Amino acid sequence: MIVILLESVNEIAINEEYFPNIYKIYNEGISFRNNYSPRNNCSTGNNEMSVMTSLYSVNNVCTANKYKYNKYPEAIFNMFKNHGYSATSYHSYTDKYYSRHTIHPNMGSNKFYGVEDLGMQYSNVYEEWPSDLTFFETAMPHFINDDKFMAFMTTVTTHQTYNVPSTLGDKYLDLFNDTEYSTTVKRYLSKMIELDKALGYMLEELERNGKLEDTVIALFADHYPYGLSNYQINTVLDYDVDERLEVDRTPMVIYNSEIEPIKVEKYTSLVDLLPTLLNMFDINYDPRLYIGNDIMDEDYFGRVAFVDGSWQDSVGFYKSTSGKFIETND
Q1: Among 212, 257, 302, which Cα is nearest to 32's?
Q2: Buried b vs exposed e over 148-164: b needs ≥16 C-beta within 10 Å?
Q3: How do residues 37-78 score in pLDDT, each as one tens digit?
């Protein structure tokens, strides 16, 4: 299994013309059509932690770093490692923001590989994030020959900012000459193409090594691209992200090349991913240790909780700041 955190991604990514690999995985896998990644303090590190543990982070604390020395026997690495999988994790940047060299091993990762461990070149300039394509090319050899692997990969190319020139932000700008998007939006889309090419490389490499049919790929986003304004996001999407906290809506999908596509309409969030994967892999776990739920359980209704205490499900949306409930059909 490969679990991939997509940095700063929302449903802009579901575009066959520009991002064919993400589109393929999303539409040929088990796609969760009402999924959310509520943004909080230290969004990437905290939401990465939430996926690994199926626990909410403390909103006003950089929880991943604050509790980096805690042990998490119920975390994704330990659960799969206990069932015979090699468990490794990868990120194409340093520990400047999150102490992954400490956090991941304490969650059971046999080895965490950062950008220097992978031998990748990188820049300390904030705008110049490394290439996800290079990241996948250097990371996959570390696990692809294992008999049973669980690899967790955290991407970075699509990180903000987009309002200044950068190597990858400008790399594919010509592809958007026929659009009316702002240059800032185009730079984000350019970075997205590099991420999509990385996923295409992953699929090709799995197939070349005879592993594609037997590999499950789970994609989720840490948060929406908050380096774009809501107005800029609305110029691309066909719904208003200002309504009902729709700005936090993100893609999540579980893919295998041999399964039939399934569209799941339940309301879900990233804390639901781990219990769902554990049940799919027939790994026993104590549900009392997780906030999330197995999405595929017929008895689970489906609801997403937002950082400010609001929530949404198929019945409606409760806005905590006003105390108002809006029915879905309103």
Answers
A1: 302
A2: ebbbbbbbbbbbbebbe
A3: 999 889 999 999 999 999 999 988 999 999 999 999 999 999
